[in-house]
Amino acid sequence: HIGVFMVVLAMIASTAFVTGHEVRAGLGEIVNVGGYKVRINSIYNKHGPNYKSLVANFTIIDSKGELYYLSPELKTYDVSKRVISRSVINSNFMRDVHLSLSKRHADKTWSYMFYIKPFVQLLWLGWIFIVLGGLVAILRCWGPRLFARIRMGRA
What we know:
Radius of gyration: 23 Å
Strand content: over 45%
Structural class: alpha+beta
Mean pLDDT: 87
């Protein structure tokens, strides 16, 4: 039951306290977003077997002064000409930071989405508790019979 409580609490908290920002900035410009300083360091072209992409290198500084380096991509597939943004995530126990590149503007600035999602790891921890609780319940029910069969050599 603790696991179910943790999962429900994490879902409510991560939904209620998520902060998202669409930001428009130029190369080298530092933008304050939700307590983080975000900077686009560079953008370069990358070619894959069936796509071309733009990769942006970001530096993120949190309120404690810790540095994070994230590199989202904006892929364009050759055949369909479909553009897909590949998000990147930086996780710790208290929050996930999601960053995705959106588009380039005519004035050589870039748009990107920056989300801070708290308590996501608590969600995963809750699922681990649920699985462990299920295993304990199965062992309590079937364990004595199984171990008795093993002792008698009939497993």
